[in-house]
Amino acid sequence: MEFRFVVDDLASTSFAYSPLQEAVFSLRCLHDPARYPHHRPWLRRFRPRLESLDRELLTALVAPWLWVPDFLTPRPSRARPAFADELRAVRRTPPGTVAADFRATYRTDEALPPVVARGIADPAAFLDRVADALEAYWHTCLGDGWWPRVQSILEADLAHQARVLAEQGAAALFAGLDPRLVWTGDQLLLERHGDTAPWPTADIRIAGRGLVLIPTLFARGAQTVIDASRPPMLVYPARGRAVLSEAPPPVTDRALVRLLGRPRARLLSLLAEPASTTELAHRLDVTPGAVSQHLAVLYDAGLLSRTRAGRTVRYRRTSLGDALCR
């Protein structure tokens, strides 16, 4: 595959990442989990949740050779788009594009899964079903516990690539994304081998449209869209994927002490129930003035609430303080 650059095309090349693309590409794990060993802990946790979702459809969004319809992975409109914004763009896909992209993904109508073959008979309604299924999948399996960790890996990758480009130039940048990428000065050549299915050759002219480079945790080599006429983008394996399988260290009381300091950690622990400055000073055997200073800091940080009864002010942990103690 050849990406052809003209004057200023390299200057308009940029990086982005896409929560929608990561959601769609993560469905590849359902087909071939052995290809993604770093995701096994996450897979074990979320598999039971799939039973409440449209699993037949979600599985059918990825062909056995791990291709996905192009309309589900549009080029990001900015460096860090929100999932909801990207999904709204998917919902605006022309119905004809939905059917065409599924046929291109599965290469023949005979290979279409039954749920897809039935759905593209009414592509507008099928598009709604696909978008609804992805939205439910995101909120049930990905949005809270998984995406923040993935996002941190993608952010670190973007920072690394920017440093490589600044210090070593475009040739080193592209070679670092995938050894099969070769920069010649006006062309970016991608040699396709080792993929699950042969991609068509393509002569992709950037022609002022800009090339967007997108890291992902679900590719073992660089890839692009099936339809080479779409806005040019190149998806590549993100650095640091292995850290996703690392279990975070357990939360202990000592962690709270390191974060807040021993006096404030002790105060926060005591304030599961309301107490006044005087009561706390008596329990800790310190002066009320010392307690008051620490309470003011914890209150300003949103970890405590306070109520007044006459001349007495009583403090208590907020929900944020409760969560921090847990």
Q: Which segments are poorly predicted (pLDDT under 50) over 5 or more consecutive residues?
A: none
Strand composition percent: 5-15%
Given the structure, what is the number of helices?
15
Query: Please, what is the average pLDDT?
Result: 89
Oligomeric nature of the chains = single chain
Overall structural class, as computed from helix and strand content, comes to alpha/beta
What does this structure look like?
This is HTH arsR-type domain-containing protein. The protein has 326 residues and is α/β, with parallel strands linked by helices. It is built from 15 helices and ten strands. The protein has helices spanning 19-26, 28-31, 40-50, 55-60, 83-91, 95-106, 114-119, 123-142, 147-168, 170-177, 253-260, 262-270, 277-284, 288-300, 319-325, and strands at residues 2-4, 14-15, 181-183, 187-190, 203-205, 212-216, 233-237, 275-276, 304-309, 312-317. A hairpin with a 3-residue loop joins strand 3 (181-183) and strand 4. Helix 5 (83-91) packs antiparallel against helix 8, helix 9 packs antiparallel against helix 10 (170-177) and helix 13 (277-284) crosses helix 14. It is elongated, with a radius of gyration of 26 Å. The mean pLDDT is 89.
